[in-house]
Design goal:
- The chain has 171 residues and is of the alpha+beta class.
- 36% of the residues lie in helices and 29% in strands.
- The chain is built from 5 helices and 5 strands, in the order H-H-H-H-E-E-E-E-E-H.
- A 5-stranded antiparallel β-sheet has the order 1-2-3-4-5.
- Helix 4 packs across helix 5.
- The longest helix has 17 residues.
- It is globular, with a radius of gyration of 19 Å.
Length: 171
């Protein structure tokens, strides 16, 4: 009996989708699913980008997101983030969505291209932590009407810099 039970357990765990490791592309696709399912901002409640990102965040990015969430909860106001990093804005009308990825052994990058009024490219930099892919940084690039780079924002770096400044003595 124990022999068959062990075989059953092995088969169960191998077939379980919960245990299947997600690839960087699958993670990014999951993050954009609410926006792509409703590409014209018709949702009753807006998805929270940081809440969606947090389970997939590296330890360092997770700490930065936690600082941001604590600030918002403490002040009841926006802190470092005033727009959704995933869509480079507050509202969305997503068109021309596409992704490409490069995976290495311990790092990967997923590039997302779309238009949200203006062209946007978002780069997701992944690292391996405990054999799982985790987002370590998100770089949002917004382009103008002429498709020239207008702004660049890095999530982890931006949050850490903003909170370091905000939390200085005499602030």
């Amino acid at each position: 009996m124990p022999k068959y039970f062990n075989v059953f357990l092995i088969m169960f765990f191998l077939a379980s989708p919960v245990l299947a490791a997600e690839t960087p592309s699958q993670i990014v696709q999951n993050l954009y699913k609410p926006y792509l399912d409703d590409p014209h901002a018709d949702l009753q409640t807006e998805p929270s980008a940081t809440d969606a990102i947090r389970p997939y965040a590296s330890h360092a990015l997770g700490n930065a997101i936690d600082m941001e969430n604590a600030c918002v909860n403490r002040t009841g106001e926006m802190c470092a983030l005033d727009s959704d990093i995933l869509i480079a804005g507050q509202d969305w009308d997503i068109t021309d969505f596409r992704m490409e990825s490069e995976n290495g052994k311990n790092s990967a990058i997923v590039r997302v291209y779309f238009k949200n009024g203006l062209p946007v490219r978002t780069n997701f930099m992944f690292v391996k932590e405990n054999q799982d892919w985790k987002i370590d940084e998100i770089e949002s690039l917004l382009y103008d009407e002429d498709e020239k780079l207008a702004s660049v924002w890095l999530l982890k770096r931006g949050l850490n810099e903003w909170h370091a400044e905000y939390n200085k003595p005499n602030k």
